[in-house]
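Tokenised fold entry reproduced for everyone:
>
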Amino acid sequence: MLVKKLEEIGDYKGYKYLVVLLDRGYRCGYVRVPVDHPYFKKNYEDITNIRCHGGLTYSNLQTKPNKIMPIGYWLGFDCAHKDDLVDINSIRERAVQIGFEAFNNVNLDNNPRAFHKDKEFVKNECQKIINQLIKIKK
């Protein structure tokens, strides 16, 4: 089971964004797309002009709120790519809660370019997406 923790929900220039931490130590970022935007309900694979860390990897219309994601159409990205490391402190916390399977399949590579993407990094990427969505809407 993939456990998620909502680390931040924010507003930036009238757009909502979320920063989510997965139990495997990676973060994801999501931006809610307004109903009147040209990308509302557009599949992330068909959106080629939005630049963010690793590219868009998520699109979904959330019709019922859950503990992580409010109602709306969301675009998102993840920080689980080749040069992304896990947040080892969050892994240690989760290991106590859900058992040591949290350590399976995590990237602890010594690649000098690799680093874990913290909450601030993901927040900034969400804001970059929002700035691009605003430009596209104009």
Q: What stands out?
A: The chain has a mean pLDDT of 83. Residues 4-137 form one domain. The longest helix spans residues 119-137. The chain has one domain: 4-137.
